[in-house]
Amino acid sequence: xxxxxxxxxxxxxxxxxxxxxxxxxxxxxxxxxxxxxxxxxxxxxxxxxxxxxxxxxxxxxxxxxxxxxxxxxxxxxxxxxxxxxxxxxxxxxxxxxxxxxxxxxxxxxxxxxxxxxxxxxxxxxxxxxxxx
Length: 132
Prior knowledge:
This protein is mainly α. The protein has one domain. Helices cover 86% and strands 0% of the residues. The chain is built from 5 helices and no strands. The longest helix has 28 residues, at 2-29.
């Protein structure tokens, strides 16, 4: 009976570890900057009531940022300095916000800031259960 209990414990732990590794790999390994940019632009179009010209410019800004972030993620996964990467992510966000401010009206930019805040808060609640 003890052997059976020990065997079940080992299987359970092995399965748990395997599932945790797969979940982490999916979120990082399958990042597609183009798809991500299309999705975010569609969300912004809805939230900010963008016209066609703004939509195109916003897509270009978001895609440029997504491509840079994808490169930074690869660098970080291959042993890059996390603190330096965090600073670069911050600089990239500032650049992106500056470019957005040029494209959006004042009212749209205020809505954009609220949109970003909502995204940050929803990400924070998702990440509270494990390592990031």
